[in-house]
Design a protein that fits this description.
Radius of gyration: 24 Å
Strand content: under 5%
Largest sheet: none
Order of helices and strands: HHHHHHHHH
Number of helices: 9
Amino acid sequence: MPRTPKPKLKPKSGRPIDGDLKARREEEILIAATTLFAEKGYDGADTQALADQLGVGKGTIYRYFPSKKALFLAAVDRIVQQLMKLIGEATLGAKTPFERLRSAVRVYLKFYAANPDYIELAIQSRALFKEKSDAPFFQHHQNFHEEWHASLKASMIEGHLRKMPPAQVADVMRYVLFGAATAMNCVERDLSVEERADEITDIIFYGVKGPKG
């Protein structure tokens, strides 16, 4: 008697990936990693200590971020993405390019003043990964530079600023703001963040030269 062929079983489908869960877990890892890198530095940060803190296996960390370098760069990328988002929201309703620039300066300084760990990672990023292709800090700040370039050029056309190469002014602004953000976390503040931001904006755009200078 011929055997009745057994019905073929459908292959079991894998467990569907929960995108929200993955995003939440990545966020948890990056928040903890940011604190660890800020406190211990890149070389002193131990991924096993990070895993222990989160209550997961070390392999879980590497499932999301394949190397310590990838984890560090992702942490820096998260910081700069947050900054760019906040600046975009704050400058959206600006009536003039000059107001847009002033708002951007305020947000920049307030962001780093409220998150001192972030400036620590920014400093490490610049020191450790000098190649721009490796550092999201450089990549995003280049986008920031280009946005400022457009606002500066528009402000010059409108007569708010004297005419000069916008890229040169944007470079100076980046240097001054990064230095100010670093200094605000190292010295006692004599002004509020908003007052310091407005002071910097005023001096950068209008200078200190008097009529007889």
